[in-house]
Amino acid sequence: MKKVVLTALFALLLGVFFSLAPHTAAAQCTMCKTQVEAARTDKDGYDFSGLNKGILYMAAIPYLLMGTVGYFWYRNSRAKKLARK
Q1: What pTM did the predictor assign?
Q2: What does the alpha-carbon distance between residue 36 and residue 48 come to, in Å, rounded to a whole number?
């Protein structure tokens, strides 16, 4: 019971932290930002509004894959430990 309460409290604190994060944190690396700004001044007809979302998408996929592998690895090793007892 204590573990469930601590997990819920941690999730709540994490949610509060991310909800209070400033909106400007969505800015990407300096190189990408300067390239987009330079391209905007050169070619005013192009729309680069989706660049940040694209970069976040490409950055999130490896983390999601590694998290999934880690979860299944943890679950499998925990099942083996319980089977030994």
Answers
A1: 0.45
A2: 7
Q: Rounded to whole angstroms, how far apart are CA atoms 68 and 34?
A: 34
More confident residue, 68 or 30: 68
Q: Is residue 13 part of a domain?
A: no
Long-range contacts of the stretch 37-46 (C-beta < 8 A, 24+):
none
Residue 11 to residue 19: CA distance in whole angstroms:
12
Return the sign of the alpha-carbon dihedral for residues 66, 71, 75, 77.
positive
Domain that holds residue 62: 49-85
For residues 39-63, give the mean pLDDT: 74
Number of domains composing the chain:
1
pLDDT at residue 4, as a whole number: 81
Closest listed residue to residue 48, CA positions, set 34, 69, 59: 34
Rg (Cα) of the chain, in Å, rounded? 21
